[in-house]
């Protein structure tokens, strides 16, 4: 299974509460923080929901 790196690149200050909770569920609490996840359907769906706040990189 492939892995992805998710990095928070924009602030969550003016975001709706569901988007803030999605970032928290991904493990992102600070700007510039990077987390690694398996590229499952649930994780990719969460990343898609907050795609304007994060950058995604595939790990081989």
From TrEMBL:
<comment type="similarity">
    <text>Belongs to the universal ribosomal protein uL30 family.</text>
</comment>
<feature type="domain" description="Large ribosomal subunit protein uL30-like ferredoxin-like fold">
    <location>
        <begin position="4"/>
        <end position="54"/>
    </location>
</feature>
<dbReference type="GO" id="GO:0022625">
    <property type="term" value="C:cytosolic large ribosomal subunit"/>
</dbReference>
<protein>
    <recommendedName>
        <fullName>Large ribosomal subunit protein uL30</fullName>
    </recommendedName>
</protein>
<comment type="subunit">
    <text>Part of the 50S ribosomal subunit.</text>
</comment>
<dbReference type="InterPro" id="IPR036919">
    <property type="entry name" value="Ribo_uL30_ferredoxin-like_sf"/>
</dbReference>
<dbReference type="GO" id="GO:0003735">
    <property type="term" value="F:structural constituent of ribosome"/>
</dbReference>
<dbReference type="InterPro" id="IPR018038">
    <property type="entry name" value="Ribosomal_uL30_CS"/>
</dbReference>
<dbReference type="InterPro" id="IPR016082">
    <property type="entry name" value="Ribosomal_uL30_ferredoxin-like"/>
</dbReference>
<keyword id="KW-0689">Ribosomal protein</keyword>
<dbReference type="InterPro" id="IPR005996">
    <property type="entry name" value="Ribosomal_uL30_bac-type"/>
</dbReference>
<dbReference type="GO" id="GO:0006412">
    <property type="term" value="P:translation"/>
</dbReference>
<dbReference type="Pfam" id="PF00327">
    <property type="entry name" value="Ribosomal_L30"/>
</dbReference>
<keyword id="KW-0687">Ribonucleoprotein</keyword>
